[in-house]
## 1
Amino acid sequence: MPSQQRTLEAVSAATASASTSTKRKNPTRDDEDDSESDSGSDVSMINVDFDFYNFNPDVDQIAIKRLLRQTLSHDDELIDVHPLADLILSEGVRLGAGSSIKTDGEESDPWGLVGVVDILENRNNPAFSPFLNYLLSTLPSISPLRLLLDPSASPAAASKPALIFSLRMLNLPLPLIPHLYRMLLSELQDQGFTDYLLWGRGYRLEGGEENLGLDMNDSSSKKNKKKSGNANANNGLPLTAGTFAYHPEEEFIDNVATHVHTYPFKTAPKREEDAFGVEQFGRLVLISGDKLKSAIEAMQAACQ
């Protein structure tokens, strides 16, 4: 997608400074190379400008709460997302780190964001400790994640962990995501974090399900849909069996992660043998800063 690549390079060049509330206002268009389209195609292409902004606590809270509930899935009733959303926003302001993506100016709702919370600084914060305790309750008794989530168990530990929240709508264009992570690491370079834990969710397929739009890595099928002019051309094809992150960019992080922990949602209803739909689960991934940087580079290369 040549036109998209040029605009993404413009975004990359604009990320050196971020002193104002409007962080990096460069358009990235979700378009395709129209030369691939047949002259008789009935596919309509819509150009959308995606802008990068610093967090705006006065505007972004409602959308962040909605995205937190989406990621918590069945367990959304176990966590009060209101104070947690406030903390993510306030940490973004305190650390000068984190970005949102919007399409209609700074006062509009974000389509996605990447933010971070300092675990050591907020371990006993009533806005954060219930969520950390929730994550701890999903871990086995012996886990490399346990001491990072509960530093009080080993106060002499030299680690300084941070919890990354990558929250977004599923249909956000993938080429935007590496820039969110790259900006985050750049903004955190002087904060001294040694480890990052990325929280999210995944889904499991048995292999017999029909394609319901979840196969986000199948670029060839997208091209075939465009050429045929039928957006549902491959919806009847079976999906590959396995477990996957809901955000396909997280696969690049998994590849170089120190540890990947998955857990069943506590309040998920028991699945019947003939249940319809994918089975969801929670994810917590441990990765060092250096490895995260290499994962971001791999993400960006895959999007070119």
## 2
Amino acid sequence: MEANQILHVWLGIVPDHTVWFFRLIAFIMLTETLANPYIVANQATGKVKTYQAVCGGLLLCIVPIAYIVLKLGGNPESVYIVHGCIAVITQATRVYMMRNLISLPMTTYVRKVIIPIIGVAVVAAIIPTIVYNEMPISVLSFFVVCALCVICTIAAAYYIGTSKDEKSLIQERIVAIYNKFHK
């Protein structure tokens, strides 16, 4: 939400398209973090060749597809949109290819990983978005919105993104830390 403010402080003059580049790259990076467990799991199975060929091949498609989109009149952001779409398709392919090797069906992955992530993202964005749209742009609004983003994300992650067992573990850790400092 505050990408423009951050880039303004960082760069002074913010070039055209930079805010959307920043946002799209952040989305791509978050999407690709979901790949790491699958990459490690694939390496552990020893069945690397087909997996790497398919996933690597999909990722290599980013360049020619982005080139075609630009040739057809796409804006500069379209390159990152293509990258984001290919990253999502590649992740779905990873999950599909690994479902039997690691005994994690796609429906379970969607139910236990994707839906909670989307739920956290949507719920965590509500209050900061309202405040962002209602407050005039200033240093105060920047800090208020950033603080609300952190607070709402932590709350949404705890209440929506964690299972009962994970909540119990978090509570145990908090109590242990509290007891350590209040003896």
